[in-house]
Amino acid sequence: MEHIRQERGRVNQKRRTRAAIVAAAAELLRQGKSPTVAEVADAAAVSRATAYRYFPTQAYLLSEAAVEGVREEVDRVLQSLNLDSHAPEARLDAIVCTLQERTAAQEPGFRALLRLSLEQPFGKEAGQEIGDPVRRGARRVDWIERALASVWSDLDEPTRDHLVGALSLCMGIEALVVLRDVCAFSPEQAVETSRWAARALLRTALDEASASRPWNDS
After folding, report:
1. 70 and 45, same structural domain?
2. Do 110 and 189 reside in the same domain of the chain?
3. Contact at 8 Å (CB) between 81 and 98?
4. pLDDT band at 2 (very low <50, low <70, confident <90, very high)
5. CB under 8 Å to 205, separation ≥6 — which residues?
6. Is the pLDDT of residue 125 over 50?
7. Looking at the structure, do residues 66 and 5 belong to the same domain, yes or no?
8. What DSSP state is assigned to residue 182?
């Protein structure tokens, strides 16, 4: 039992250390700087060796910091939209707009993060160490489910799964890469197209759910 507590303590400490490094990098980015791993370590009050163990390259560290800033902003936007007084489409649109605008504004950093993610062997996350690069993007699923909580019960499970998957394709750097590189859209066009697609997908899912309900004229 003592061994388990000690192990949990070490894991929690690693998480706190990593979070402190990312927070320090995010703050330096907000100040308009492009800090090195060593500079971030100094700002986070951790050893440079520790910082490099978690983030072996500047690109990876700054990409993670950029992602953290976006997470915080999208969470704030979602929390500001009341579940009862804001329509699900408005909540979803606010999330997609915020996420894609911030992603477009920091496109080089997010492209670097995408490249690093793709370079990791598939399935590596299952046995991952705390300091290793992680696959990112799962947060968007939580945002989608929270945004659509008021209509979630109107959809059957297969439809919910399809909708989450389809909406995830409209969000993040992956969507931006397709719209910018394949379609040659401007950042503004890419953001607006992501918003349009997300709204269309939600309306389609809700219309299909409504049409499939047994008619009740009571």
Report:
1. no
2. yes
3. no
4. low
5. 155, 159, 162, 163
6. no
7. no
8. I
How far apart CA 18 and CA 41 sit, in angstroms, is 10
The CATH number linked to 15 is 1.10.10
Give the predicted TM-score (pTM) of the model: 0.72
User: What are the residue ranges of helices labelled H in the chain?
Assistant: 2-30, 37-44, 48-54, 58-80, 88-105, 107-119, 139-147, 157-168, 173-177, 187-212
Give the Cα-Cα-Cα angle 59, 35, 119 (nearest 5 degrees).
10
Domain, as residue range, for 14: 1-56
Q: Which residues have a Cβ under 8 Å from the Cβ of 137 and sit 6 or more positions away? A: 168, 172, 174
Tens of pLDDT, residue by residue over 5-41, are: 666 677 788 889 999 999 999 888 878 788 999 999 9
149 vs 157: CA distance, rounded Å: 13
Contacts (Cβ under 8 Å, ≥6 apart) of 83: 91, 149, 150
pLDDT for 134 equals 45
Residue 202 belongs to a domain: yes
pLDDT tens figures, 164-218: 999 999 999 999 999 999 999 999 999 999 999 999 999 999 999 888 776 544 4
Q: How many domains does the chain fold into?
A: 2
Which two three-digit tokens encode residue 198? Answer: 């997300």
Does 136 share its domain with 83? yes
